[in-house]
Structure formats: structure tokens, C-alpha cells
């Protein structure tokens, strides 16, 4: 799953003939003045300026400014670029033509197990949630394209008529092409607007997710996926992602500020159950982390050090199921090195460490990590006979 | 009994090194339960025609790598299962081919990061062809006592600990691979073990789902209960609940669902599995899945930790109702132990192996090489040089400063002698023919012999002999040589003579005799010999080979090592010539015919063959 920003989404829409407003993405407000000299629409249209970052609730944060002229847009861009929102900094803004329009529609498409589903409504815009019953659906089986007649029929059911219905159906059919050919997972255009005087349509706002695993067959994907957690990635998360991209196996990290129980857990499945166990017992997690697929020890070491640096943690849960092929001895040697390094840098003060693990070379791995007790670590080590998530109970009861 | 994989299962693995590792793990299971090898062929075009070594216990099997599935199946028609271990960009094509193959009924894919569309197409295709496509991202399938597909079950020790050598009464279906192993362990600890465990993979659109396998388990009389481990995202667990609630089912269902923590975590939070993602408005949340399954009659503990108790409870009920009988305790000692490798047994001191070779000079087993015990870096650190390394590796002694200086000079003086001599010329011809450095240099090296550069050893050897046997009798020595050897090695030169002495010889003799304190009986002896031979003929001087040979004997190097100094020194020159020719991008050389005397027969007709 990979959410992409509006700019790259617009580019893909353009490629597939879905009408978009004129837009530019800038990193330096002064560039806008020069673009204004080159582009008539920037001088003559009303403009909208939006922070081009993965930040949720941009409107409330004042990161969307509407109905501006070029001068006002320049000001708005200057104001936004460089602003810090939580852990993220706004580096880019998108300046788009704010098309005067008569009506707002809703078009979306989302994949499912058997294909995809197209959703249409003539009551788009901010109130779509309230008008959800007006949405009409068309199931599109895998590798089949509905006829334009069929889409037009759905458009009629959704309350469109005449030429508008035909044009909406045409746009929807192109959206289906775009969805299918770009390995998209979902595309939501809200609103799709129309200016009836010249029958001009434009996708004013769009959210698009593409299948990042399919990037090997899309040479023109020049963008990177953005964070889906309502904020941009922290430096630590970014570092772990960079490592993840380079190694066999995987290491993953999401920080959850405010928690005091750090997770250093193995396996995509088990790690979730560890998070659950913490929450179920009334604890708060400081992060979600996972390593799996027998990653190299240095990658696990880097993950360990990152986790040891999380602020205000009281416990670290080094948990995992009985591994199939991840070598416990090798991955634990990375964890042990990470703990030693962190301790020498002054971290892990008053932090209790809880270990439960099984798998290839489990005896050697567990014996090695248990030895940290002799180096003054507050570490508690259990083997497969300890139920998997019970170390969380032990931690919270300690 | 079991589902999906059984004693009749024969598999082909499509993929490279990861597939080979899986095949080896699978063979361990084959050994444990004493069944024939499961993996019968590999398909991996880059390694076409190779044989892969697979040990089933102590028995070595060679399994062939084919370039196409078609070919593998043609030669191994018994194969009915394909395991996909190939990269995500080629996984679709491979799986599609496997689904197309007539004899193959089951395709299981471990590949991660397969595009969703590809997975959806494979699922659809499998449904259309009536086959099973398991995965992507599946750790595999294991039927206790019957068959292991993939690395599911982990290391050999774990196979025993989880009682996988014989069937139990529990089925296991998980999304996660690690948890399939954990669930098998729980079934062995709290119940009587598993019939079959299958991991469907944690992707958004797996090829099969809980219902696919619940239906199979329902039809498998040996399976009395099924443990499913699901997680947030998608609707597969809800569908399992619908299936369970739709009618009275023979099997009991126990379920653990991960992802309740989502309720307090940031929206859109991404977990380890691609599919573990809550939809809009709580669709696919862990809580809704748990509720649905509970409503349908499944036992659903609040946390994973509660699974042990639930399994134990179901097991006790099954025992009490007489549906299953208690499993007699099997003496673990009856199970075969994996044969250890030679290294392991040697570590235990239980076997003696006669070494194949012996070394007395160099040891690479530590963090860095040691030359006769000295660490290379420490030698560098303490100011030793290449002459000292030569002293250690050739003569197991650290030369003194004075000796090092002599060795250094010998190498410097012999490093090159222009392009015309056989060695350099050989390298140059090779370089001009486009031959790479090591081969071109060895072309020059092959020239070193009795007529070029190879006289050092024999010179040293015979002068040493003279010193010993004819100490004060040069003419006795010379007549012995004439009778037994021929011309004295180290004496004589093609161009140099008494009037036109070899500057190198002059310098070396002068340096050794006047600037060092080295005792030089051999060199002195050779100089005496020279006095006699030059009296006979002007050019029978002590040449550079002879000089070097004598000095090296006086330095106490073993006589058979002496040519090594010339070989080493001249290698520097030959490499230089090769680099030089390459820098100039020299063209191929061939001899002009005017440089050849064609002393051949005249043209004539070939007679008819008799």
C-alpha cells in the first residue's frame, strides 16, 4: 500500500486523460512569481494553495488556502513553506487553479479480491459522507473493462443525465484504465467538478494509493510513497525504512509518542499480538517494530539501537514466536550488540528488558542474551515454554 | 490423515538458493518420518543442468535443476506440487505455468512483495482450473507424519518438539508464518499435535482463505478441531465465521485474532503484513472479527496468550467424549537423530580424520593471517618489510636488518631485464594477443628454466657442493662437474665478459663483501672458480644467477628455494610489461615471414589414403 501525493496523482491522471486543473508544485515561493510570468492561468484564475505533504487535517491546520490571486498565493506559499507541524516540516506546496464550478461530484474506485468497484455520486464534496446513500456502485471483475454504455447506465442511476452523464461515464472509464494500468489500489476523486458554461470538468482533489510492490513494472514512477499515518515519517523511521529496502528479510518501525513500553518483536504476525497484549493489559506502546525473514544481524542491531533511544521507555519487549528460519543466535547477536552500544551511550537506564523466543539455534541465542545480566542489564529471559505474550504480563506486573 | 500434503506429495521447487535451503529442510523431515524425498526437481534457468546435493539423513541425493517446468515435469511425471521461491517480478509467470501444468494440483508461493493484481489473477486462475494456489508470502504447509512443504516447522529439533513425526487431531490455519509454527507448538503442548498446518500468507489478497481449508478439514476425519490465527484487515475471518455459523460443523474452531491494539493506535498504522490494515469505519477490525467468530460458535480468547488454555480445553473435551484416545507417550529416543557433520563430530572428539595436507608456515583460521605465528598487521606495525615476509614464508626465519637489505637488493636487481629476454617477451606477446594479466604473466613465467633465469637454484646447489666436497680443490670440483653435470650453472654469459663485466654482479659482490658482515664461503668459492674459468675463456664469468644463488646459500636459504627469488623478482617486471602493452593498446604481433626460414618440403599432392 502506498499513498501518493496529489502532484504525482495529477500527473498520472493527465497521462490517462482524466481532466485536472492546472497546477504547479513548488519548493520555493519565489519560483511562483516566475511561473506566474510564464503561465496565464496563474495570473488570471483564482488559486488554491495547499501544503504538499502527508499531513492529515490540512484544512484545520490552515494548510489549505482558497480563492487567492497570484500575489496572495505567493504570500500563502511563503507562509506555509518551512512551517513545522509536529515532527514534520512543510517543504512543498501545490498551487492549483481553483476552477469556478457549478456542481461537485464524487467518483472513486477501489480494488477488492475479485476485481474492483467503481463508485459514483452526483452529490460530491465535503458532504459526501452524509449523502452516502446516493452513491451507486459498479463491480468490475478482474481483467474486464465495463462498456461505456454500462458505466453510463450507472451514471444515470447515480442521478446524472444528458451530456453530463456521458461525460462523467467517459471520465470514469478513463479512471478505470488508470486504476488498472497503474497498479492502483484505490483512487478517490472528490470533488470532480463541472463548469457548465464550457462543460469543463476537473478533478479538484484526489487521493490515490498505488501498489508499491508493482513498482518494478512502472519505469515512470518518479515519486516515493508518503506516510500513511497522518504525519510524515520521523528520522528514525526513515532510517529503518532505508535499511529495510537494502536487506534480505525486513525491519520495520513506527514510533508512537507517549508510550512507555517499547517493542522489539519478531515476525509480522507475532508483533501484532505483542502490541495487542500491551494494550489489553492497559499499557501503552512506545512503538511498533518488527524484524523477520532472517535479516542480517547489523540491521537488527540498528533497529535495537533506534528502539533504545525512544524517550521515557520503561520496558523493552524482545518477543517472538518460534521462528521457522530466522536464526535466533544471529539476530540476537545484533540485539545484544545494540543493547551494549546503547548502554555505553547512557541509554537503558532503569529499563527492564523481557525476552521470549524460539527457533533455529534458540539455545545459543537465549544463553548469549541471558549473559547480559552479568553486565548489569535488567534483563529477563524465557524460552519457548513461556507462552508467547506472557512476558508482557510479567513486565506490566513488575 | 491430512489435507493438501501427504505421503504421495512430490514437489518441484521453482527458484534459486532460497528454494535449495527449503529443499534441505524438507529432506530433514523426510528423514524424520522415513519417507522418500519430497523435492524431486528444481526449476531455475541460471543453474540449468546442475545437480543439487540434498541429504536425507546420511543419504546423499542429487536433485536436478531444469531450465523449464515443462522439462522438469516431462522427466519427473510423479510431481504433483509446485513451490514458488522465485523473485516477486517473476513469481506470477512461474505460478501461472505451474497452475497450467497437468499433473500439478497444488501451488504454494513463499515469495513476498508480489503485486496485488498478480495475486488476484492467480487466485482467480486457480479457482477456474480447480487447483489450489496457496500464498503469496506463505511459509508453507506441513502434514504431521506425512509431508513438509517449505521451511514451516523450523529446525529439526523443533519438528520433534512439536510432535510433527505423527498426526494429532488439530488443524492449523494462519496468515503469519511464524505463528503457524507457534500454533503447532501450542497444539503439541496442550493437545496431541496437528494433522496439517497451513499458512495462507499475510498479503491483502491471498490465493486461498480460511474457508478453503476449513472445508477440507471438515472432510478430514482425523482433524477434530482447527486453530486459526487471523489478524486485522480484510474479511477472511468474517467469512470463516459465516462458514462456521452456516450449519452444524463437525470440527471445533479456536481462533486468535491480532490487531485489537489498532483501536488505540494512529489511524492507517501499518503492521508487518501487507493485509493487516483496517478498512474504513472499522471494517475488518480485529474486534469485529472476534465478535463474528464468537457469535458463530468459535472459541476466541481475548489475547494470543489465551490460546493455550483454549486448545487444552478442547483437547480435554475431545478426550472426555471419546472422540479421540490419549496418545501413547512416544519415547523420543526412537526418533532418528540427524546425522552430524564431520565438523560437529570432530568438535566432540569422537572421530579422527587424517588431514589431507599439512602446513608449517601460515595460518588463516584467526582474525588475520599469521606467518609462522606472527600476525601480518603486527609485522607491518613494527616496521618489518616484504623481505621479512619472504624470510618467514620461505625459510621460517626473520632475517636480520643486514640480511633484509641483501634480499631487497637481489629482488631490485632482478626485477626486469628489458623486453627482449624470453620471459618479458613471452608476456608481451600474450599481452598483445589480448590475454589477461595472470595468464600473460604466467606465459612469461613458463620461460624460466635452464636457459633463462632458472639457474639460480642449480648454481647455489653446486657451488655449495663444491665448498663442501672440494674446499681447496677448484680443479677437482670442475672436473667433477664436467663428468657429472656439464657446464657449471652460474658461470658464463652470452654477451658479458671479463672486459665487459656485468654491472649487477659487480655491485652485488661489492655490496655483500664490503658493506655487510655476512660470512660468504659460497660466494668466495664461486669467485675462485671464476678465476679459473675466465682464464680458459673470457666470457666464462660468474653471472648474475650464480652470484645470487651463492649469496642466498650464504644467507642460509634452502637450495631448492633459490629460483623463487628470480620468479618473484621477475614477476614485477612481467606485470610491468603487461601493463605497459595495455596502456599502449598494442596490436597483435605475428612474425614477418622474412624472419622465418621456411625449411620445408616443396608443394606436393596429397596421396590417396591407403
Number of helices of chain B: 22
Shape of chain A: elongated
**What strand line-up does the widest sheet of chain B have?**
3-4-2-1-5-6-7
Q: How many separate helices of chain A?
A: 12
Helix content of chain B: 40-55%
Structural class of chain A: alpha+beta
Strand content of chain B: 5-15%
For the record, give the distance between the C-alpha atoms at the N and C termini of chain A, rounded to a whole number.
39 Å
Please outline the major beta sheet of chain B. Answer: 7 strands, mixed
**Helical proportion of chain A?**
25-40%
Largest sheet of chain A: 7 strands, antiparallel
Shape of chain B: elongated
- Radius of gyration of chain B over alpha carbons? 39 Å
Query: How many E-type strands of chain B?
Result: 16
The unreliable regions of chain A are: none
| Euclidean distance between termini CA atoms of chain B | 76 Å
Q: Could you tell me the strand content of chain A as a percent range?
A: 25-35%
Stretches of chain B where pLDDT is under 50 for at least 5 consecutive residues are none
What does this structure look like?
The complex is a heterodimer of chains A (398) and B (610). Chain A has 398 residues and is an alpha+beta fold. Chain A is 34% helix and 26% strand. Chain A has helices at 6-15, 29-38, 40-44, 70-80, 148-157, 162-181, 235-246, 268-280, 297-308, 328-344, 362-370, 390-397, and strands spanning 2-4, 23-26, 47-51, 64-68, 84-85, 88-89, 93-97, 103-112, 115-121, 136-141, 184-195, 200-203, 206-210, 250-255, 261-263, 287-292, 315-322, 352-358, 378-382. In chain A, strands 1, 8, 9, 10, 11, 12 and 13 form a seven-stranded antiparallel β-sheet that branches. Chain A has a four-stranded antiparallel β-sheet with strand order 2-7-3-4, with helices on one face. In chain A, helix 2 packs antiparallel against helix 4 and helix 5 (148-157) crosses helix 6 (162-181). Chain A is elongated, with a radius of gyration of 26 Å. By secondary structure, chain B is of the alpha/beta class. Helices cover 43% and strands 12% of the residues of chain B. Chain B has 22 helices and 16 strands. Chain B has helices at 17-33, 69-75, 88-100, 116-129, 156-161, 177-190, 210-219, 236-246, 286-295, 307-320, 342-348, 376-381, 386-395, 401-414, 422-432, 437-445, 456-469, 474-484, 503-515, 521-536, 544-554, 562-583; strands spanning 11-14, 39-43, 51-56, 59-66, 81-84, 106-109, 132-134, 140-143, 147-150, 170-174, 194-199, 225-231, 252-258, 362-363, 370-371, 374-375. In chain B, strands 3-4-2-1-5-6-7 form a seven-stranded mixed β-sheet, with helices on both faces. In chain B, helix 8 packs parallel to helix 9. The relative contact order of chain B is 0.06. Chains A and B meet through strand 14, helix 8, strand 16 and strand 17 of A and helix 4 and helix 6 of B.
Amino acid at each position: 500500500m502506498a499513498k501518493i501525493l496529489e502532484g504525482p496523482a495529477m500527473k498520472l491522471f493527465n497521462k490517462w486523460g482524466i481532466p485536472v486543473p492546472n497546477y504547479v508544485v513548488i519548493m520555493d515561493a519565489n519560483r511562483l512569481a516566475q511561473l506566474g510570468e510564464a503561465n496565464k492561468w496563474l495570473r488570471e484564475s483564482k488559486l488554491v494553495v495547499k501544503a504538499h505533504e502527508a499531513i492529515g487535517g490540512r484544512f484545520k491546520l490552515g494548510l489549505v488556502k482558497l480563492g487567492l490571486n497570484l500575489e496572495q498565493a505567493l504570500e500563502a506559499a511563503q507562509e506555509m513553506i518551512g512551517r513545522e507541524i509536529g515532527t514534520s516540516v512543510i517543504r512543498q506546496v501545490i498551487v492549483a487553479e481553483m476552477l469556478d464550478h457549478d456542481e461537485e461530484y464524487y467518483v472513486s474506485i477501489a480494488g477488492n479480491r475479485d476485481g474492483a468497484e467503481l463508485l459514483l455520486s452526483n452529490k460530491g464534496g465535503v458532504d459526501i459522507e452524509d449523502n452516502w446513500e446516493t452513491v451507486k456502485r459498479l463491480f468490475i471483475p478482474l481483467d474486464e473493462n465495463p462498456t461505456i454504455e454500462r458505466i453510463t447506465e450507472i451514471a444515470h442511476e447515480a442521478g446524472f443525465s444528458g451530456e453530463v452523464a456521458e461525460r462523467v461515464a467517459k471520465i470514469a472509464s478513463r479512471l478505470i484504465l488508470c486504476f488498472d494500468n497503474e497498479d492502483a489500489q484505490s483512487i478517490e476523486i472528490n470533488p470532480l467538478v463541472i463548469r457548465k458554461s464550457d462543460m469543463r470538468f476537473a478533478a479538484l482533489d484526489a487521493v490515490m494509493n498505488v501498489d508499491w510492490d508493482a513498482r518494478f513494472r512502472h519505469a515512470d514512477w518518479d515519486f516515493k510513497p508518503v506516510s500513511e499515518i497522518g504525519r510524515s515519517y520521523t528520522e528514525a523511521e526513515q532510517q529503518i525504512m532505508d535499511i529495510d529496502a537494502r536487506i534480505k528479510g525486513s525491519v520495520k518501525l513506527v514510533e508512537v509518542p507517549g508510550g512507555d513500553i517499547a517493542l522489539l518483536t519478531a515476525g509480522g504476525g507475532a508483533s501484532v499480538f505483542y502490541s495487542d497484549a500491551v494494550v489489553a493489559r492497559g499499557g501503552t506502546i512506545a512503538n511498533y517494530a518488527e524484524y523477520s525473514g532472517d535479516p542480517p544481524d547489523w540491521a537488527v542491531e540498528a533497529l535495537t539501537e533506534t528502539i533504545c533511544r525512544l524517550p521515557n521507555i520503561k520496558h523493552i519487549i524482545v518477543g517472538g514466536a518460534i521462528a521457522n528460519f530466522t536464526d535466533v543466535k544471529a539476530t540476537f547477536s545484533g540485539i545484544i550488540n545494540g543493547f551494549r552500544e546503547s548502554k555505553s551511550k547512557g541509554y537503558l537506564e532503569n529499563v527492564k528488558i523481557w525476552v521470549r523466543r524460539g527457533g533455529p539455534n534458540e539455545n545459543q541465542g537465549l544463553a548469549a542474551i541471558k549473559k547480559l545480566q552479568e553486565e548489569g542489564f535488567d534483563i529477563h529471559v524465557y524460552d519457548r515454554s513461556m507462552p508467547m505474550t506472557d512476558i508482557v504480563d510479567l513486565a506490566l506486573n513488575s | 490423515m491430512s489435507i493438501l500434503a501427504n505421503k504421495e506429495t512430490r514437489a518441484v521447487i521453482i527458484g534459486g538458493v532460497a528454494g535449495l535451503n527449503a529443499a534441505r529442510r524438507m529432506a530433514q523431515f523426510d528423514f524424520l518420518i522415513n519417507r522418500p524425498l519430497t523435492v524431486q526437481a528444481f526449476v531455475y534457468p541460471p543453474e540449468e543442468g546442475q545437480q543439487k546435493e540434498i541429504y536425507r539423513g546420511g543419504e546423499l541425493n542429487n536433485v536436478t535443476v531444469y531450465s523449464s517446468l515443462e522439462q522438469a515435469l516431462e522427466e519427473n511425471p510423479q510431481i504433483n506440487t509446485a513451490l514458488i521461491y522465485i523473485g516477486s517480478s517473476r513469481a506470477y509467470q512461474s505460478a501461472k505455468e505451474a497452475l497450467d501444468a497437468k499433473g500439478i494440483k497444488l501451488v504454494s508461493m513463499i515469495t513476498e512483495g508480489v503485486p496485488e493484481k498478480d495475486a488476484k489473477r492467480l487466485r482467480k486462475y486457480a479457482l477456474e482450473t480447480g487447483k489450489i494456489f496457496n500464498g503469496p508470502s506463505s511459509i508453507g504447509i506441513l502434514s504431521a507424519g506425512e509431508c513438509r512443504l517449505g521451511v514451516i516447522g523450523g529446525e529439526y529439533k523443533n519438528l520433534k518438539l512439536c510432535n510433527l513425526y505423527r498426526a494429532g487431531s488439530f488443524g492449523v490455519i494462519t496468515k503469519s508464518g511464524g505463528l503457524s509454527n507457534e500454533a503447532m507448538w501450542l497444539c503439541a503442548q496442550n493437545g496431541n499435535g496437528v494433522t496439517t498446518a497451513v499458512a495462507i500468507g499475510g498479503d491483502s489478497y491471498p490465493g486461498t482463505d480460511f474457508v478453503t481449508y476449513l472445508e477440507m478439514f471438515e472432510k478430514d476425519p482425523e482433524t477434530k478441531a482447527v486453530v486459526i490465527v487471523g489478524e486485522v484487515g480484510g474479511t477472511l475471518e468474517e467469512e470463516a465465521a459465516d462458514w462456521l455459523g452456516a450449519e452444524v460443523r463437525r470440527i471445533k474452531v479456536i481462533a486468535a485474532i491480532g490487531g485489537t491494539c489498532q483501536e488505540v493506535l494512529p489511524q492507517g498504522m501499518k503492521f508487518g503484513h501487507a493485509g493487516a490494515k483496517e478498512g474504513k469505519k472499522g471494517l475488518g477490525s480485529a474486534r469485529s472479527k472476534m465478535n463474528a467468530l464468537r457469535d458463530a460458535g468459535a472459541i476466541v480468547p481475548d489475547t494470543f496468550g489465551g490460546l493455550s488454555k483454549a486448545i487444552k480445553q478442547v483437547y480435554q473435551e475431545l478426550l472426555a467424549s471419546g472422540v479421540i484416545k490419549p496418545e501413547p507417550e512416544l519415547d523420543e529416543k526412537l526418533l532418528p537423530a540427524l546425522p552430524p557433520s564431520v565438523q560437529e563430530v570432530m568438535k566432540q572428539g569422537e572421530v579422527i580424520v587424517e588431514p589431507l595436507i599439512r602446513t608449517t608456515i601460515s595460518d588463516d583460521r584467526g582474525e588475520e593471517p599469521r606467518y609462522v605465528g606472527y600476525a601480518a598487521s603486527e609485522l607491518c606495525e613494527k616496521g618489518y618489510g616484504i623481505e621479512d615476509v619472504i624470510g618467514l614464508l620461505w625459510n621460517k626465519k626473520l632475517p636480520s636488518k643486514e640480511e633484509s637489505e641483501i634480499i631487497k637488493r637481489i629482488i631490485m636487481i632482478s626485477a626486469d631485464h628489458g623486453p627482449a629476454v624470453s620471459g618479458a617477451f613471452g608476456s608481451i606477446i600474450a599481452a598483445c594477443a589480448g590475454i589477461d594479466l595472470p595468464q600473460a604473466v604466467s606465459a612469461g613465467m613458463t620461460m624460466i628454466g635452464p636457459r633463462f633465469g632458472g639457474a639460480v637454484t642449480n648454481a647455489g646447489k653446486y657451488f655449495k657442493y663444491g665448498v663442501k666436497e672440494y674446499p681447496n680443490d677448484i680443479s677437482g670440483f670442475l672436473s667433477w662437474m664436467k663428468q657429472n653435470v656439464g657446464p657449471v650453472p652460474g658461470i658464463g654469459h652470452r654477451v658479458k665478459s671479463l672486459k665487459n663485466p656485468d654491472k649487477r654482479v659487480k655491485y652485488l659482490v661489492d655490496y655483500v663483501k664490503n658493506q655487510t658482515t655476512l660470512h660468504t664461503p659460497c660466494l668466495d668459492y664461486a669467485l675462485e672458480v671464476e678465476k679459473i674459468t675466465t682464464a680458459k675463456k673470457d666470457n666464462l664469468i660468474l653471472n648474475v644467477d650464480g652470484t645470487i644463488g651463492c649469496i642466498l646459500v650464504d644467507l642460509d636459504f634452502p637450495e631448492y628455494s633459490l629460483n623463487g627469488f628470480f620468479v618473484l623478482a621477475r614477476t614485477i617486471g612481467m606485470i610491468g610489461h603487461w601493463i605497459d602493452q595495455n596502456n599502449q593498446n598494442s596490436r597483435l604481433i605475428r612474425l614477418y615471414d622474412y624472419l622465418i626460414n621456411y625449411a620445408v618440403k616443396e608443394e606436393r599432392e596429397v596421396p590417396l589414403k591407403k
